[in-house]
Design a protein that fits this description.
It is a single chain. The chain is mainly α. The chain has one domain (2-128). It contains five helices and no strands. 28% of the residues are buried.
């Protein structure tokens, strides 16, 4: 049951941070750089499935090992590495296969993925370690 609570906590943290990024901070950046590729309406089903899977990955690879060893640094490092791997896979694949995919988007998005995943993993660990 504790894992379910931790998953819900991670989900809330992920959405809170990522929605600020996507909705406010980087919105015009992505629109300017990728406007020619963006759909008028997002495919929310695909987005939700991604988020549910990715947050499960954050728990599996970063939060649960950190809780097991009671070390926030494991959450931070494993989260950062997971963010690098996942966001680099997406962005570098786009760079390789999508005509005119901007390199600056690749760099910014990978850095965002590293930060976001490390932050979510670390904050979730800090809260989860207090759940007893």
């Amino acid at each position: 049951m504790k894992t379910v609570w931790i998953y819900l906590i991670a989900t809330a943290i992920f959405f809170a941070i990522d929605m600020v990024w996507i909705g406010f901070v980087a919105r015009s950046f992505y629109k300017e750089k990728l406007g020619y590729l963006l759909a008028e309406k997002p495919n929310w089903a695909a987005a939700i499935v991604f988020y549910l899977i990715y947050i499960g990955g954050i728990l599996f690879f970063a939060v649960i090992p950190a809780l097991r060893d009671q070390a926030w640094t494991i959450a931070l490092v494993n989260g950062a590495v997971l963010g690098l791997l996942c966001y680099a896979t997406y962005d570098l694949t786009n760079l390789a296969t999508v005509d005119r995919f901007p390199l600056v988007v690749v760099i910014v998005d990978i850095l965002w993925g590293i930060f976001l995943t490390a932050a979510v993993a670390t904050i979730t660990f800090l809260i989860g370690s207090r759940l007893g």
